[in-house]
Design goal:
single chain, 180 residues, mainly alpha, rod-shaped
Length: 180
Amino acid sequence: MAAAIGIIGVVASLAGTVVSAMGAKQQADAQAKQADYQAQVARNNEIIAQQQANAARQAGAVEAQTQDYKSRQIAGTQKAILGASGVDIESGSPLAIQQSQAELARLDALTVQSNAERKAWGFDVEASNQKAQAGLYRMQASDARAAGKTAVLASLIGGVGKFAGKWGDSSGGGGFSLGG
């Protein structure tokens, strides 16, 4: 009867070891999957931020070009009005006004483009941050997998130690016996 109880104890110890190891692996796998998922979300956010940066640059280029067209239209209108009024537009104050207007128009277009670039830069920074975050999550996933393997190994070694202790207890110090 004592031998049967000893066998039950040994089997229970082994079963507990296996279940503990499986639980450690499942927990590590779950942590790794969560970190992998978060890494993919961060990667997707990086891609979106890059697309937003590109869109901001393209919109800025179009807006700057539109500003140039408006400025040229205004300059042409001014030139036509001055010319129609009989003013010499090729010298003196009228010429200086036209040159000043052209410089201001170019400054307006550059300001539009600069604002778009500043907005795009913000998206570039966000993309960079998301890329770094994705790398961190991938590292966490890798660490979780490694920790899971270590936990499984620790459970198995601990279980073997318990098994060996029960083996020795059941045998009365001289090996395991099944019978009386």
